[in-house]
Amino acid sequence: MVFQVTVYTEDDGSITLSMDDMDLAINAPSKEAAIKALCRDMVEYAEEYRKEFAVYSGAPNRAAHAPLVEEILTATPQELRDALVFHPEQMRPKHPHKTVTERLEEYYHTPVNQINPTKEDEIDWGKPQGNEIW
Questions:
Q1: How many other C-beta atoms can be found within 10 angstroms of the C-beta atom of residue 58?
Q2: What angle do CA 10, 92, 84 make, to 5 degrees?
Q3: Cα gap 9→92, rounded to integer Å
Q4: Distance of alpha carbon 26 from its chain centroid, rounded?
Q5: Are 103 and 112 in contact (CB under 8 A)?
């Protein structure tokens, strides 16, 4: 049992752990706190998955989680923690913060007071289809 986790150090010094295999992410003041919170969230998700198995296992974006859920539910807390494999810490790229005006002008290559709104009909997407979990 191995769970790949990416570690991000945020600008404020907090730590974000992202487990892409199950679409889980957690942010905490320290790596240790983030690990505990991620393990807790993994167990909570696995328990919810088991409780609503027909819904989750039938959802295209969640069906592949079934074997992971089984591993999580049968693991001890220490086994779960030991199964986390951390990618080398990654720093998010530092981009200067821009105002909305600056971003609009950069995108449209026009001063913001010369950008004209477009008139488009609203798209009716209809009702949700399938068994997606939002």
A1: 14
A2: 75
A3: 7
A4: 8
A5: no
31-51 and 66-74 helices, crossing angle to 10°: 110
CA 132 from centroid of its chain's CA atoms: 16
| Segment-wise mean pLDDT, segments of 10 residues, the chain, 134 residues | 88 88 91 95 95 91 92 94 83 60 84 83 72 61
CA pair distance 83, 133, nearest whole angstrom = 27
SS (H, E, C) 75-122: CCHHHHHHCEEECCCEECCCCCCCCHHHHHHHHHCCCHHHCCCCCCCC
Global confidence as pTM:
0.65
Q: Are 17 and 5 in contact (CB under 8 A)?
A: yes
